[in-house]
Amino acid sequence: MSIAKTYNPKEAEDKWYSYWMGNGFFRSVPDEREPYTIVMPPPNVTGVLHMGHMLNNTIQDVLIRRARMQGKNACWVPGTDHASIATEAKVVAMLRERGINKKDLTREAFLEYAWEWKEKYGGIILKQLEKLGASCDWDRTKFTMDPALSDAVIDTFIRLYRAGYIYRGVRMVNWDPQGRTALSDEEVIRREVNQQLYYIRYTVQDAAGGPASLTIATTRPETIMADTAVCINPDDARYRHLKGKKVFVPLINREIPVIEDTYVDTTFGTGCLKVTPAHDLNDYELGQRHNLEVIDILNDDGTLNERAEILIGLDRFAARREIVKLLDEAGHLEKTEPYTSQVGFSERTDAAIEPRLSMQWFCRMQELAKPALDYVIKGDVKLIPDKFINTYRHWMENIKDWTISRQLWWGQRIPAWYNDQNQWVVARTEEEARALFIAEGKSTDSIRQEDDVLDTWFSSGLWPMSVFDGIAHPDNADIRYYYPTNDLVTAPEILFFWVARMIIFGHEYTGKPPFRNVYLTGIVRDKLGRKMSKSLGNSPDPIQLMEQYGTDGVRVGMLLSSPAGNDLMFDESYCEQGRNFANKIWNAFRLVKGWEVADIPETAAQQEAGRWFANRFNQALAEIEDHFSNYRISDALMTSYKLIWDDFCSWYLELVKPAYQQPIAKDTYETTKNHFEQLLKLIHPFMPFISEELWHDELFGKRDKLDCCIVATYPLGGLFDENNLSEFNLVQQTISEIRNLRNTKQISPKTALPLVIHTHSGMDYGRYAACIEKLANTATITFSDGKATGATSFLIGQDEFYVDIAQNIDTEAEKQRLIKEIEYLNGFLKSVNAKLSNERFVQNAKAEIVANEQQKRVDAEAKIGLLQDSLNRLLAVD
Question: Are residues 135 and 196 in the same domain?
């Protein structure tokens, strides 16, 4: 085919993605090959593609495409998470827009709307991942509420319950008033909040000559109606007169006791505290120790209920403002002062969390967590980068029981059943529950199922097994072949939410961890260092970026600066750089394809260029292999980028390129095509579309329908001649020095310059003379045992180079330049000598610092010598 002048990313992307899909290149079934498996962290069905998804899935696609090219049976399982809290909120909002209140619906009716919403919006993000080029096995797409996956969740609940890990009880939990559900500790984000500390007077009953009131500081005056005691420290002499006394709760005048407990911090506030067992975890524990009443004054949605006695129905924060006014008017508010403290917020809704006593289902975690910790500590599961091991260890060693019930309708309903006496059993079906009640001699009247659903992380914790149906059928062909999976790519913030729980469940079911490596990406931030978010308006639309820069360009832009575990400071200019790289490859291909080929001998420059690039390619491939083995994906891309842009385009092609309107030697042309083909394979995991487009060009001959770059054999490394690479590096430096000399002296590239080389290193520059002549445009290259006259000079290592530019420059201006440079270097040398003649410096400084200064002296003296020689030659010409 004829190749267009410019690359059209959209045309190539649409064409080749459809081609790959239509020919089953993403499909995987068990066979005799080595499997390479990744399970996609399932994005929420509420989600649309954001920059974090872009980074995460690009990395996964790079790994899976490379494994596929290496001949492995690559299987990337995609899917979505039902996201109970987020999805239910979306459905409730949709119903509100239709004038429907969730409270007016039955559970079954609500779930019909929820499934309607999921079918309409739940697949958006997966279609967007196709645009990214994600080479998932879409036939294996799973949803965490698919029947088989839900069955696996229910089976796991029953299994853990029967093993004694799951229990039901009243505990203080984190309550989300907006989501109206309990949350686990890990779903609470703690932030510093600027608040007010309110100093409130409580009237003392029968003060008997003592102070008539007691002042207590609190940040939550709206909870005073739930106070059931005031607590003082028994060692605090200031409050000994209050022992055995009672006080009255302001505004409602309810009598409560003064209790003593060493828990009280005598330095905080006034040194005593109000005890509100229903609304603070520490207060609850105090209440348990002192047998205090528990008065819950908040409804599920954070409004005050009848037990508050006043301000009933007001939201908690509105009630705070009102009660402050009432306290002030009644003379109970002594003062307020600014105060900063940690407040918990819901990870899902961002609502301020309320500690609340609630009947919930819990999972005991200490015993389950131990093997999951051991896997990471022993290295059976590698965290990349390993700086996260200590974080993981801390979490797992201090793990608390997991609140697994959620007060929602969307999700897997807990398989517990209650009778008319509120007794309960755990069973898969009502029939099984009825049989259990009968077996235990309990009533079977009015049997009903638990209303709560399980935490979403409970289902996603089974993901690496449930996607292969490994819970219900633990010996099926898929689970035996694909499990454990190879690599997991995810974000550090869900290391405990998700990664740890997958390891826990994997061990519980199989005695093996679910994956071998966990690559933890960083957070995508803007160039000011702010986390990208819709609220800040600093997050670009990934789809628009791909439309503007091409998918390959955006993939390169994301990866160029995304080392594992470190945040990515994203700038759109990276995508522009990626697009420019794609254009560079395209233009290089057009150059090669445009050459006329003839059966003529290769030039010396072409022969040396071919030998050098073959060595350089193998050297770069070894570097890339090392980067991939250590999950330095960004570095692997950068090495590939430099190999193509610098080594291939800027050096190799320039060296082998024939003279204007002249043909190229057939052997050189074949060598160049072979190099280009290898480079397309090397770059394919990063830039799948442009590599596939060029792969099918007629330059490489007619290809079979299935002979595609996506399944081409990944380049295999070979030996490389380090001596050749070292020598060629000196040649490159020589050419660069002469080019720089032209630029600074404003000498035309078309002007051929004589070059004299005085070598001390033993380097055979004669072998590479044709390369130097071609790229530096030297008229002649001669070798001398002494200094050349009438020429300017430069040093490369030990070797001296002299270029006769006298006829092409203003000699007077050059003399003045040389004099100034010699003066500057003499001054520099003087300062270095002063430092080295200082005995205190030489004796006290580190040996490497002294050696560095000595090297500076040697270099300065050599440069001064060369400059002085150049000046002397110009003076001699005069």
Answer: no
Burial 663-679 (b: 16+ CB within 10 A, else e): ebbebbbebbeebbbbb
Residue 258 pLDDT level (bands cut at 50, 70, 90): very high
What pTM did the predictor assign?
A: 0.83
Q: How many residues does the chain have?
A: 878
Instruction: Map residue 774 onto helix, strand or coil.
Output: helix
Query: Using CA atoms, how far apart are residues 247 and 242, in angstroms rounded to an integer?
Result: 9
Residue 339 has pLDDT above 90, yes or no: yes
Whether residue 775 contacts residue 801, with contact meaning beta carbons closer than 8 Å, is answered with no
97 and 235 housed in the same domain: no
Q: CA angle, corner 620, sides to 617 and 625, nearest 5?
A: 120
Give the count of beta carbons closer than 10 Å to the beta carbon of residue 623: 18
Listed residue (190, 179, 191, 153) closest to 404, CA to CA: 153
**Nearest 5°: phi and psi at 186?**
-70, -15
Instruction: Give the range of the structural domain holding residue 123, as residue numbers without chain letter.
Output: 15-141+473-525
| Domain co-membership, 560 together with 678 | yes
Residues 647 and 520 in one domain: no
* CA 786 – CA 807 distance, rounded (Å): 22
Among residues 250, 192, 258, the alpha carbon closest in space to that of 225 is found at 250
Average pLDDT over residues 673-677: 97
Q: Is residue 767 part of a domain?
A: yes
Helix, coil or strand: residue 210: coil
Q: Are residues 127 and 189 in the same domain?
A: no
Residues 55 and 130 in one domain: yes
Closest CA to 463 of 426, 499, 497, 502: 502
Query: 570, 496, 519, 501: which is closest to 56 by C-alpha?
Result: 519
- Residue 789 pLDDT grade (very low, low, confident, very high; cuts 50, 70, 90): low
Q: How far apart are CA 389 and CA 216, in angstroms?
A: 43
355 Cβ contact partners less than 8 Å away, ≥ 6 residues apart? 172, 173, 174, 175, 279, 280, 281, 284
Mutual angle of helices 604-629 and 666-683, in 10-degree steps:
10
> Is 813 part of any domain?
yes
Question: Ramachandran region of residue 762, left (φ > 0), alpha (ψ -120 to 50) or beta?
Answer: left
Measured CA to CA, the distance from residue 59 to residue 37 in angstroms comes to 14
Rounded to whole angstroms, the Cα distance separating 600 from 26 reads: 44
Q: What is the domain count for the chain?
A: 4
Tell me the CATH number at 279.
3.90.740.10
Q: Cβ atoms within 10 A of the Cβ of 797, count?
A: 11
Q: With respect to residue 533, please indicate whether it lies within any of the assigned structural domains.
A: no
Which tokens hold the place of 604?
């010396």
CATH code at position 128: 3.40.50.620
Instruction: Tell me the C-alpha distance between 627 and 620, whole Å.
Output: 10
Q: Is the peptide bond before 9 cis (omega within 30 degrees of 0)?
A: no
Structure tokens at 199: 């100093």
- Give the least confident one: 34-38, 441-445, 520-524: 520-524
Report yes or no on 694 lying in a domain.
yes
Q: How far apart are CA 326 and CA 517, in angstroms?
A: 59
The residue type at 355: P
**Phi and psi (nearest 5°) for 424?**
-140, 155
Q: 329 and 264: one domain?
A: yes
Q: Among 213-217, 316-320, 632-636, 748-752, which is the least confidently predicted range?
A: 748-752
Same domain, 586 and 515: no
Where does a domain end: 336, 354, 372?
354
Domain boundary pick from 318, 336, 354: 354
